[in-house]
Automatic annotation (TrEMBL):
Source taxon at top rank: Bacteria
Keywords (A to Z) from UniProt: Signal
Key word Repressor present: no
Domain Outer membrane protein beta-barrel: start-end pairs: 18-183
Protein name, per record: Outer membrane protein beta-barrel domain-containing protein
SUPFAM superfamilies (UniProt xref): OMPA-like
InterPro entries: Beta-barrel_OMP, OMP/PagP_B-barrel
Length: 183
C-alpha cells in the first residue's frame, strides 16, 4: 500500500511540475425584477484540464446552476427553483497566439440534468465554443468564452414527453469569464 501511495504522489508531482495541468473555472450571478418579485440566479463551473502539447488540451467542466435564468434551454418555463447539474468534457485547440493572448476553440460533449420543483429534464449536446486566454503571469490565466455553435437535445423526464432538438449559434447570455491556475 505504501508503494502505491508513493507512486501516486510521484506521478502527481511529475505532472504538476511540468506545468501541464490547469484548474479553474467560472462563477456567475444574475438578478432581475419583474412585476411580482425579485429573481436571482447563479452558476459555479469548476474546471480541470491537461495540456497535451502547446496547441491541444483536454479537460472537463462540471457545473451547478440555480435560479430563474439557469439552463432555460432545458425547460420551457423555468423558475427560481430550477437547479441544474452538468458535465462537459472538451478538447481545446489553440489556433493563434499573440504574446500572452491565445485564441482557442473548445469542442465539447455536454450532459445536463435539471430539476424544476420535481419536474426533471435531461439534455445532451455537442458544441464548439470560441474563447481567449490571457496569461497574467506564469501561474494565472484569465479565460473568456463567447457564444456556442452546436446541437442540443433535451427531454422532460415525464411519461409521454417528446425530445426537443436545437441546432444553432447562441450568442445570447453566452459570455463567460474565468480564472485558471497553471501547475
Amino acid at each position: 500500500m505504501k508503494k502505491i501511495l508513493m507512486s501516486i504522489v510521484a506521478l502527481f508531482a511529475t505532472v504538476t511540475m511540468s506545468a501541464q495541468v490547469y484548474v479553474g473555472g467560472s462563477f456567475g450571478f444574475a438578478s432581475y425584477d419583474d412585476s411580482n418579485k425579485s429573481h436571482t440566479a447563479f452558476k459555479f463551473i469548476p474546471e480541470i484540464g491537461y495540456n497535451l502539447d502547446e496547441d491541444i488540451a483536454i479537460g472537463v467542466a462540471l457545473g451547478y446552476t440555480q435560479g430563474s435564468t439557469a439552463a432555460a434551454w432545458l425547460l420551457t418555463n423555468p423558475n427560481e427553483d430550477l437547479k441544474t447539474f452538468s458535465i462537459a468534457p472538451y478538447l481545446r485547440y489553440s489556433f493563434a497566439k499573440f504574446g500572452p493572448v491565445t485564441v482557442f476553440a473548445d469542442g465539447s460533449f455536454e450532459y445536463a440534468h435539471a430539476d424544476n420543483d420535481g419536474v426533471k429534464a435531461n439534455a445532451f449536446g455537442l458544441g464548439i465554443q470560441p474563447g481567449i486566454a490571457v496569461s497574467l503571469n506564469e501561474k494565472f490565466s484569465f479565460v473568456s468564452h463567447i457564444g456556442r455553435l452546436g446541437y442540443t437535445q433535451s427531454k422532460l423526464d415525464v411519461s409521454g414527453a417528446k425530445a426537443q432538438s436545437t441546432f444553432g449559434l447562441d450568442l445570447d447570455n453566452a459570455l463567460t469569464f474565468g480564472l485558471y491556475y497553471n501547475f
